[in-house]
Amino acid sequence: MVDPVDLLPGGTLDTGLLNTAVNTLVDGVNANAASMDVFFILFSGYLVFLMQTGFAMLTAGSVRTKNTKNVLLKNVLDACVGLVAYYLFGYAFAYGPSSNPFLGHSNWALSDNTQDFHVFFFQWTFAATAATIVSGSVAERTSFYAYLGYAFFLSGFVYPVVSHWVWGGGWLSDIFTVGAKDFAGDAVVHMVGGFAGLAGAVIVGPRIGRFDADGRVVPMPGHSATLCTLGTFILWFGWYGFNPGSTLGISNQSPDANYTATAARCAVTTTIAGAAAGVTTLIVIKLRDHIFDLLTILNGILAGLVAITGSCPWVEPYAALVIGIIGAFVYMGAAAALLALKIDDPLEAFPIHGATGLWGAIAVGFFAREQLLFQSGYGNDQGWQGVFYGGGGRLLAANLVMVVAIAGWTLFLIAPLFVVLNVVGQLRIPREMEIEGNDISKHGGEAYPPDAVITEEMLAQKTIDNLGMDESVRRDPSGEASAV
Amino acid sequence: MVDPVDLLPGGTLDTGLLNTAVNTLVDGVNANAASMDVFFILFSGYLVFLMQTGFAMLTAGSVRTKNTKNVLLKNVLDACVGLVAYYLFGYAFAYGPSSNPFLGHSNWALSDNTQDFHVFFFQWTFAATAATIVSGSVAERTSFYAYLGYAFFLSGFVYPVVSHWVWGGGWLSDIFTVGAKDFAGDAVVHMVGGFAGLAGAVIVGPRIGRFDADGRVVPMPGHSATLCTLGTFILWFGWYGFNPGSTLGISNQSPDANYTATAARCAVTTTIAGAAAGVTTLIVIKLRDHIFDLLTILNGILAGLVAITGSCPWVEPYAALVIGIIGAFVYMGAAAALLALKIDDPLEAFPIHGATGLWGAIAVGFFAREQLLFQSGYGNDQGWQGVFYGGGGRLLAANLVMVVAIAGWTLFLIAPLFVVLNVVGQLRIPREMEIEGNDISKHGGEAYPPDAVITEEMLAQKTIDNLGMDESVRRDPSGEASAV
Amino acid sequence: MVDPVDLLPGGTLDTGLLNTAVNTLVDGVNANAASMDVFFILFSGYLVFLMQTGFAMLTAGSVRTKNTKNVLLKNVLDACVGLVAYYLFGYAFAYGPSSNPFLGHSNWALSDNTQDFHVFFFQWTFAATAATIVSGSVAERTSFYAYLGYAFFLSGFVYPVVSHWVWGGGWLSDIFTVGAKDFAGDAVVHMVGGFAGLAGAVIVGPRIGRFDADGRVVPMPGHSATLCTLGTFILWFGWYGFNPGSTLGISNQSPDANYTATAARCAVTTTIAGAAAGVTTLIVIKLRDHIFDLLTILNGILAGLVAITGSCPWVEPYAALVIGIIGAFVYMGAAAALLALKIDDPLEAFPIHGATGLWGAIAVGFFAREQLLFQSGYGNDQGWQGVFYGGGGRLLAANLVMVVAIAGWTLFLIAPLFVVLNVVGQLRIPREMEIEGNDISKHGGEAYPPDAVITEEMLAQKTIDNLGMDESVRRDPSGEASAV
């Protein structure tokens, strides 16, 4: 609240008052912009957090009923365990004020007591996303302790270091002078999750029965296409926090940038790429398999959304269309390749997030426009842009280094972890448990307990003798006379 | 970011500096307002997009399991195919800068490269809503190609032209000087969807078994009341983007209008109308059918939300209550009428969106208050308001022309399309497929595959012989020793 | 929109113009801040409203299929009936401008026609939350009319009066000079719901079969862990409206407060407490029961979110961790105590909301920091803060009075209502209806009708004779020739 002022006390201009008033107004304008940006970041972060719900529903729908509680719990704990790891260590590694090109090393457990809590919140939601992606690749046969271990490790160290490299002022942020550019995290988030998932899927091995004796794929459908659709829609919705939110502000704070137009462009290109990839998948699968394949189309949409994540504010709408279409092909190709290699990735997390994330990071090098880089606040005066706009290969080269470095780093850290866990017999659940399902043996019962379902027979019987009632209740039931 | 300034360098006022500083502040204040409005429009659009999820869940829950994937896919593609159509043509027809009273004809595929991407995004979400409504009316027996055709046509042409008429400066926007007024689209969106759905439901005919040999209605319940409830709640939530978001800004940019108060009023009237309609339906159905009918109450709530959509910022809270209550009766009456006419609209999309949308558009002519029209930025100085506030019938007349024109336009374009598709045998799926369900024949299997459900018998058997396992996995299972 | 101005017409400074311009800018800055705050409150309110969806899904998943429609309808009507009650009376009791220390008594049905509709909207979503909590405690065996009665009473009177005491300038707001402090409503909202639920659960008695003849607990699992997870995630998401939204603004309007930092801190502490409680529950239940218990962990997360609700802007991150961990223990302890006392609270609403809400309200007295109270706009100059920061016991004492007063008030009003209903036989449904379930007898059929599920047998039969078809449809099926 800025107070009104009378600049003409006694009819003459009080210049001291004027100077103060104008600078108070300067503060007021800046304060409004700053508040608006925090508001924008918080609500964008809320949407990214909601993606946990989307992943949970998508994963649940994609597995068999016998493992439903197991995958749901893993998704829930990605948020919880990941938060603890990111709060204690991760944020410090990623954005600690004391830092070197490799990692940050201060502000442990938010101990610096700074006023950037909204930044912590937003960044945590991204860490949680990276961790969640992995759970899909290793679903239905991985030990719970192994899962807890890698979720903590990924959220607390693997991902934060990568985000420091690209977004926290680390070595990739200025490589080849132009710096690797990955707006909302195709390499930083999706590749980390997707490649960690790939390592897991390879090392833990396929689910029992996924490939038959001749190596042919045996269909192993999840238990609910409705949950998959719900999850995908929620993820799409959450992506509007993920991509436009990565503008990290909505006010036009800087004279060189237009954050408002940047965020709006992100919303549009994200939508176009997701929709285009969905339509592409629809057509290709219809031609190939002669069905309108809902589940593959859902994954195609997710692939389109991943594909545009790295470049969303820097490309034209038509380019978003192209990036999304190619993203759908990358996803379908990678999915086919995994099956040909007998790698079982139940959620297709590597094709969607790993392979398509890689494509999206590279697409920046082809489609980014200089003026849009400026507009997003990534500007510089050096004329670097995508190959297709005559920018030469420097941006592309920087991003190629980035994808190689991030894939390498992720595999380098995660693969040994999974291998060691496997060697000591702590990676995969026992065969009998896998056949029976995780839920009964580890989680106290089925996700959909038969006891909770009333059947025609039970009603036909109309007897209460087998209901195990408390005798006192039986003798004096409350409300017996109730009309309702 | 506005920089501080010293207006008194050397102790005396620098008037040139002052003039610049004050005008920089003017720019800063305006920029903050503009950024805030884009922020508001984007997030409102996100909520409207989420309504796709709501429709998907509501539709899925309202059909039988055998068609679940089919209806889910149609909902998914409303967003995807509709986006392609709206991006390529629709937005140009609706809001192209080059326009005539009938349609716009420029900015194809966003080629003008303007900075109004947030407007495109917001308007697309409305187009997707109109398209989605239709799918409910023709669910469970309509050809997939027919569906793809009308979704593309509706999103790319039918709806955009209507929106141009009322919101894009077309002929209805200034009819009878006052102009037809439909704030968030009772006629523009809901009637288009509802009447297109009616045409479809009539022409495609009822589902097999919906009416018995004597013409009596056979109950044909959907498979999940939970999904219907989830969908309805998500739609209600999304409506807060649809109605308050249609303020198209939240800052008080204009001296004559108060967008802030307008948006807040929309949120309240929307809530009141939806809740009042829900309670009304509860009471009426209890009195009529002697049950507390969850599914009808959910539809009643939706009818209340539709009813207030056209007038939400222009009416008093008590009027919202009345509009919602009448909306519930309109919905229930139209639903009964359809059944009496042996028209099978599985989602009751016409009663909810078509008939109640018509009521909502007309209600503007009765309940709109002049001062609230001013407040919403629709003001003029001519004293026009609703009949109940002494405004004469001019506003009502304009809106009556609007509903007739929009119903006529929609039926005029959509009915022939459906008739032609029917004549060439491309509208309705074959009888055998309808009985079997769409999912098995066209979508590669059931939404809830029995294979994905573990049963007591399977567990009792505890054998893996019939699991089609890969022999190599059987011989050397990973992690056999795992304790978890 | 502020217009540019030329302060130097003819080259000399027009001081009158300058004075006007500067004050116009003052108005513009303030208007932007005010609009932003309304925007923030509206969207926060939308999130809180979405919590209804979360409660509905959580409750549905926690009951048996035979009562699913019943609990869903109760959740739907919490919003609808609660809105009517809060609109007509509740808001006036809570925040009516004419008021005394006990209650407000003006602005019935928003009749004052003020511009605070966003406040009404936000406050209503809190009233709906309080009402919804109760429905979990009395699920599966309570009369529908009894439910309608207490929902109306709670939303229209019990809760509004409490909110007046603490937030509306009532007697608790300045008790012991410092005033009871409950930021987002641990006592005001969660305790009201939780204690009303406790009264209901005790008086209505346990569900048939919940305890066996020897008083041992019989497991009575709900029908879908997936719905429980969905509901919990949606609640967590909605909590970002509940807690940060309770800042009631995001701009830094006051020189003494920083609303922006306050809201951001709330988001972080809320996340930390929820996650910490989830991890705590994971570990404790694993140690105690030897399972990774998804459902208890979900409730643990909710308990963590409740625990931090009262103190979220006033505590350090480490304190949020501690408050969440203790909250998990309070929840688990209260849940065990209820079972030991043979009280059947199907959703554990009292342990989560009542007991943990009480803990959260008391935690304020231990962990609140003075500087953070100032920052949130609750500041004063008297040096009061939590016991752990040397603030003495005054704040703790005020909050202890608050929790006693609110628990007493709620029980004092609700318990007699339930007792009277019970005496006249209107509280509990008849025994036969309870065994059969509410849905078939009162709600027109099952939530998941067997008729809507296609079975292998039905498909194998491939006959339509038993489908009750309309003969006219049979003789001339539309689209028989369709290829799709």
UniProtKB/TrEMBL annotation, chains A, B, C:
InterPro entries: Ammonium/urea_transptr (IPR029020), Ammonium_transpt (IPR001905), NH4_transpt_AmtB-like_dom (IPR024041). It is found in: Cell membrane; Membrane. It is a multi-pass membrane protein. This is Ammonium transporter. Keywords: Ammonia transport, Membrane, Transmembrane, Transmembrane helix, Transport. The keyword rRNA processing does not apply. Its main location: membrane. The lineage of its organism: Eukaryota, Rhodophyta, Bangiophyceae, Bangiales, Bangiaceae. It comes from the Eukaryota. One of its GO terms (molecular function) is ammonium channel activity. The gene is AMT1.2. GO terms for biological process: ammonium homeostasis.
